[in-house]
Write a structure and sequence with these properties.
Bound molecules: guanosine-5'-triphosphate, magnesium ion
Protein name: ATP/GTP-binding protein
InterPro entries: Gliding_Motility_GTPase, Gpn, P-loop_NTPase
Structural class: alpha/beta
Keywords: GTP-binding, Hydrolase, Nucleotide-binding
Family: Belongs to the GPN-loop GTPase family.
Shape: elongated
Pfam families: ATP_bind_1
Radius of gyration: 22 Å
Distance between the termini: 45 Å
Oligomer: single chain
Number of strands: 12
Largest sheet: 7 strands, mixed
Length: 322
Amino acid sequence: MSELKLIFAGPVGAGKTTAINVLSDKPSLNTDAAVSDVTAARKATTTVAMDYGSLALSDSQKVHLYGTPGQMRFRFMWDLLANDLAADCAGLVLLIDNTRASPYRDLKYYVQEFSNLIARKKLIVGVTRSDLRSEPKLAEYEGWIEELGLQAEVRFIDARSKVDLVKLLQDFVGEEAQADWQQLLDDAEQAPERSVADSPAPESPVSDYLGENIVMKDSIVDDVLNIKGVQGAALATDMGDIVTSSLDDTELDDFIGFMAGIVPVFEQVSDLGRVRSVVLKSERNDNVSVYVEEEQVLGVVSSNRASVRILRQQLDDLLQWG
Ligand SMILES: Nc1nc2c(ncn2[C@@H]2O[C@H](COP(=O)(O)OP(=O)(O)OP(=O)(O)O)[C@@H](O)[C@H]2O)c(=O)[nH]1
Ligand SMILES: [Mg+2]
């Protein structure tokens, strides 16, 4: 029996777990846990380690399917799968959710994270949930893929549809596979629609489409306050004007506004390239972290007992999934 391996990656809620459940002959192994963090607005459960399933392509060949967790805090699993467990895979299936705020940023982010694998292996991009929002269009994705210097096919699929998934496999690994595709497609047509753990998950909302930029909404201040160890936050424009603040310390507000102006100057005079955050760590008092996005700056005051690295990761998750 010969074997093929495929890795499924992509953002939270793109449908990696769903796709592996739908494709797998035997019940797939999922490590989903209830969501207790910023992802909760979009989904009830999220993958915390990995998904695994397998599908017999014929009597002589089997394809192993490995799904990665979408959340950044579990990105060590991405490396483990790409460099170790499934380093000898035939290729990467990147699923992108068309209803998220910036599918372009998602695409760019995951392509970068898996660049070592993509340099050695084939890539195919499946865009899900286009029934809920049709923008961006396929032609836009094709443009982005070219811009990112990739050679990959992109198509709209529904991760709940076995037919869509079998067709994707056929076009992706058809050449190296020994499969009776017609038989597989006929079987897929008979297959009942399945979702995560066979139970319908709540539909995640369609975000405002932001193109290539992340725009922090005023509500980011309230969202950040939900992160453990955070004591206060303020959002400022790149001109240093405070938009919203939970801090009752105007000097701190002024300082965060001041950093909005300082960071671009610092970038220009140093060789550091793009600076995304500045952290002032205190031995005795709270830490102040300043995060710089396009045209906006977020200042966060946190307990010096909270890890700055974890705070950064949770904020990244918030910006990415929010
Ligand atoms: N309407 C619609 N729903 C879809 C489509 N594809 C997948 N879904 C749904 O979107 C959700 C995807 O959830 P998961 O499969 O858990 O996503 P995931 O990529 O594993 O997410 P993480 O494990 O959190 O990274 C499920 O509720 C699917 O039923 C689609 O094309 N259209
Ligand atoms: Mg999952």
